[in-house]
Amino acid sequence: MAPIASTTLSPTGSKETKTTCPYCGVGCGVIATVSDNGAVTIKGDPEHPANLGRLCSKGSALAETIDLDGRVLFPQIAGQKSGWDEALDLVAQTFSAVIAEHGPDAVAFYVSGQLLTEDYYVANKLMKGFIGSANIDTNSRLCMSSSVAGHRRAFGSDTVPGSYEDIELADLVVLTGSNLAWCHPVIYQRLAAAKAARPQMKVVVIDPRRTMTCDIADLHLAIRPDGDIALFMGLLAHLAASNSIDHAYVSTHTAGYEEALQAAAQLALPDIAARTGLSESELVTFYRLFETTRKVVTCYSQGVNQSSSGTDKVNAILNCHLATGRIGWPGMGPFSLTGQPNAMGGREVGGLANMLAAHMAIESAEDRGRVQRFWRSPMIAARPGLKAVDMFRAVADGRIKALWIMATNPVVSMPDADAVEAAIKTCPFVVVSDVLQDTDTTRHAHVLLPSLGWGEKDGTVTNSERRISRQRGFLDRPGEAKADWWQMAEVARRMGYSGFDYHNPSEIFAEHAALSAFENEGRRDFDIGTCRNIDERTYQALRPFQWPASLTEDYKEDSKRFFAKGDFYHPDRKARFVAIKAPAVTDHTCSAYPLTLNTGRVRDHWHTMTRTGKSDRLSAHIAEPFAEIHPSDAAALGIQDAALVELASPHGKVILRALITPRQARGNIFVPMHWNDQFASQARIDALVPPVTDPVSGQPASKNVPVAASGLDGMLYGFAVTSAMPDFRGALYWARARALGGWRSEIAFTEPVEDWAEWCRLAFDIPAGIEPLGYIDRQDGDVRLAFFDGERLLAAFFLSRGPVGVARDWAVAQLMASHTDVRRRFAVIAGRPGADQPDPGATICTCLSVGINHIIAAIRSGASSVEAVSHMTKAGTNCGSCRAEIRGIIDGCLATAAE
């Protein structure tokens, strides 16, 4: 592998560093440029094979998220500053004492797909090889473990067979359980470009919601939650009946086909229609399309994985590709779209509780012995550890007495989140390694350790297509923050363990690579043995590469695929069909909880917003938590658009903004998973999700949750823009978001406040002596108050008995405007711009800050296509993930004009 320069000087003298985006599993290459004055700019790396220069809105805004506001800058014990030696000694001594008294299974690590591979490797080595427990699990359990389990059942290894290139080469792309346009935007743009170049390419979207991904779909199958197994069982039976089975491939390279087919044949077409909610004609259309198209790629993500039957869903999909031999060839194969930037790297080092390093099996005595010999460790975990949900149950009941949480926020992201928080609160000893001082989880830390963040830390990540890329530091290390691998190696040494004397991440990566090749001889899929002797200089210049990269083969840069000619990783080198049984029950609703909750992501935020919540640009598109509700359901419940709605399950409740839309299926509600107690009063949606898991993978079922919904009547609704972070008092509901120059907030009250001006002074930190401009109408409930300090707006507050009618994006912009003219001040109170101040409207294109009113103006000027609107406004010309919304605005405007 020829290295490329990782850090260069631009013609202007600025330093350019090639690194990798820290968001989803696409693994986009990024070029970060630091100017002489320290300013950072971000652009896509045109030489990186994953993105070829493209970035999504989140990646484009990375420079807005690297400030030191809110950072943990020094170790803390019980909330007080300490030195590293004191903090690490306490961690080592406490873990050692717990192990000595209660055994190794009384301690646990809960880690993250946000960690670099080197961090993950040290954590896994310490827990499984030296502490001697497998109680190390990861938030990747919540997103990809059903794919891991399905791969291992079918292939004998956790192997993603194909490459991103296959999505572009396919003639049919099936997207099931994936809102690709919002969750993996760069891959979506690669697919959209391929379809534009070859219009005969077909795209099928299988999703209960009509998501933005449906913009390029030739067929949208609005399937019922958890109807996927029946759908793909029916497909296998159809392929057999239509003589589409590759019998040569099946007989030579697989086992179990007849049993799988016999199970699939139990479902007749009417039964499949009843289980999926699809019509028989829709089913036949899909089945014939798959049958008659040789080059098929089936992409699947959280809608498949996050299910109590997620592993069976994965194997139902894999069965169809194995049966047709459509795997491992260009433009063919199943493709698991990974959620996190290094979930794959975590899988490579054995970061899950039921795996060993280098894709070895913890249930195999031979593999356990091999890893122990390589590590020269005193012991090796002899059985799988506790998976995430079971781990926090063990914390709750006292079996786990010392817990180390790294780079994740389980109080927000775990199912039954309130119970998880209660468990962490009662745990005798909790260590948290994080970059932020205040998260829903760090507030419960006995020891808080400051970690390096993106742009500061150094290591590798692996993306969805098995491509290993470097994350490189280009910023100074803030305060006393240290790398996660360093923290764990220091604790290991202080616990008396040898083998952790690493000086830099390149030494860890070399050891990781050597283990992948150790006694491998082609028996394991993961092999990067060519890097086993990598030195610091070569590591710093390492270019992205796709594994395998073994010692026995010359490495070639072309896309690497598995299984076109069999050679699977079961002992007989054959794949396994899995005989699937359709779940007896997929509808879990009842009279008390008659609606089905589906949780997921939005376009511009990530996980629990600890990074994206710092960016005003990323908060502009969707600034508060919401619940998507079908119009018929909203009407039956008496819920008005933009009103507040309470959702409840037996495990908790939330208060959200109602977004009424026909995109949502009847009987279903969609809520994003990002919001937490730092940004909203009561919006941690995973508090409603029960701790129900897939019996094979242990992955929680986050997309089929029975809930009840009710509108909140008699509310006073408020909106505010403030220069200082607001501290709401007496409000039933609030949601705050970053804005340029301050904050924007939505608020609601059950009762009016006696003195609204004084409430604003306290909530918005208004200095004494500054009087408000505006009015209070107690009879109608309307309040409009603005506080100015000279020409600068400090805060504007709007209140009414219904959702507040204010030009929000324009109001936010007033925080950065000059208000010497009294007319501008009265415009702020009115909440509307004057004729000389155009209102951009709600943000549609986050990358370039283009509002809906700009887009509508372009349409009225004659732009009747997305391309024409983009040409006039630049909207959709960067990451392109807003193009579906632009098309919807065009269609709406043209339909209105035709009436």
- Which strand order spans the largest sheet, edge to edge or round the barrel? 6-5-17-16-15-7-8
Estimate what percentage of residues fall within beta strands: 15-25%
Q: What is the SS-derived class?
A: alpha/beta
Q: Would you identify the regions where 5 or more consecutive residues have pLDDT less than 50?
A: 1-5
The helicity comes to 25-40%
Radius of gyration, rounded?
27 Å
How far is it from the N-terminal to the C-terminal residue, by CA? 62 Å
Give the overall shape: globular
What is the tally of beta strands? 35
Sheet with the most strands? 7 strands, mixed
In words, what does this structure look like?
- There is one protein chain.
- This protein has 899 residues and is of the alpha/beta class.
- It has 30 helices and 35 strands.
- It has a 7-stranded mixed beta sheet with strand order 6-5-17-16-15-7-8, sandwiched between helices. A 6-stranded mixed barrel has the order 22-26-23-25-24-27. A 6-stranded antiparallel beta sheet has the order 29-30-28-33-32-31, with helices on both faces.
- β1 and β2 form a beta hairpin.
- The longest helix has 19 residues, at 84-102.
- It starts with 6 loop residues before the first strand and ends with a helix.
